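Please describe our next protein:
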Amino acid sequence: MAIWLTENSKIIVQGMTGGEGTKHTRRMLASGARVVGGVNARKAGTTHEGLPVFGTVKEAVEATGADVSVAFVPPAFTKSAVMEAVDAEIPLCVVITEGVPVHDSTAFWAYAIEKGNKTRIIGPNCPGIASPGASNAGIIPADITTAGRIGLVSKSGTLTYQLMYELRDFGFSTAVGIGGDPVIGTTHIDALQAFQEDPATDAIVMIGEIGGDAEERAAAYIEQHVTKPVVAYVAGFTAPEGKTMGHAGAIVSGSAGTAQAKKEALEKVGVRVGRTPSETARLMREIMQAR
């Protein structure tokens, strides 16, 4: 079992015929994911990588039964692509695109809610979601870990990969890269709730970063609703104070949003927090070995 993405998931790729779409469609197929088609209005009716290309998401869903879309669409067209996926009521839309204007992210997120919240959006500016041994939707390498019973939710793509690799001997139920932009579709809390409810997940790794208050809000949620052990890492302990680092969401104002403030909030509710990714992996290793 996994959250949101299983071996039965049928994936379509918006922007499949572009360079990035082509490359990662090949990767997903090689990993065993069930990619069933692509979407490009200008190339509708053709085939690409041996898969049919449809004019709209709705047509792709009707023809293939797809329940996941992965969007490799340039930033200027991402808003309309996600709205199209929402209109088609596809259950999961994974938005890989980096550089999406925050106004556009806000617009398609609000549109999904207005349309009844039938489409879960992951991203934008994220590596996607992978359920090792079952399916892979996005750009997470398929060969760096194994199937297991750890759940992972992360703002950072690179740190997602590192923790998956360092804990590969225990393996993961699902790893979700939610992205680091100020406005994202799926939050730490959404993933924590899903992992808490997933009988195949025994423990959770949560990766955050400086800026905003998402980790503090996650800590409050953990205190009230999560009984499974959680280990966390907050990127940015050595960031110069007041300097914007990395992702657009990583902006520090005063003490709010600093790595130390987030660490304290998480530890206050019983979450063990590593000061480095490797220390975080060690803390999770201790928990899994004790089970």
Observations:
- Confidence is low (pLDDT under 50) at residues 247-254.
- The radius of gyration is 18 Å.
- The CA atoms of residues 68 and 185 lie 15 Å apart.
- DSSP finds nine helices and 14 strands in the chain.
